[in-house]
Amino acid sequence: MNGKMILSACILALSTIGAFAQDIPQSQVPAVVVNSFQQKFPKAKGVEWELKAGLYEAEFETGLFGTDHEVWIQSNGKIVRHKEELAKNDLPKAVIAKVKKDFPGYRIEDVKKITEEQKITYAFEVKSRTDEWKLVVDTQGSILGKIRD
């Protein structure tokens, strides 16, 4: 139950933040924010900036196949959250084992790795022919939240 509340609160917070977002050109992003971003992601392509609830969000791609990323940065340059697209094969073995145990026959789709401070979580969907769940798990495979989709 607690995991559902956490996941619901995160979804609500992110959707609320999105309601107040403004696209901005990089020239209007503070230099300390741009410098922090460029140091951490020197190979970023197609960077788009938004200002959401006092945080600067950069959406961009990296790599040959265009891996999607979103990063939230405070006005002092501190990166507070990083969400990146991930191949399901790149999930930790403990996460894959937990899904196979708890959701036999389901396939994993739309994997995201989320880093906040030093904490890493994974958000993804598991689907069968008749059922679909959105999950948030930690690096050990413990389910922090799940919602039937």
UniProtKB/TrEMBL annotation:
Coiled-coil region(s): none
Keywords from the named record: Signal
Domain Putative beta-lactamase-inhibitor-like PepSY-like: 56-144
Highest taxon listed in the record's lineage: Bacteria
Signal sequence interval, chain numbering: 1-21
SUPFAM superfamilies: BT0923-like (SSF160574)
The keyword Signal is annotated on this UniProt entry: yes
Pfam families: PepSY_like
Gene3D superfamilies, alphabetized: 3.10.450.360
The protein's name: Putative beta-lactamase-inhibitor-like PepSY-like domain-containing protein
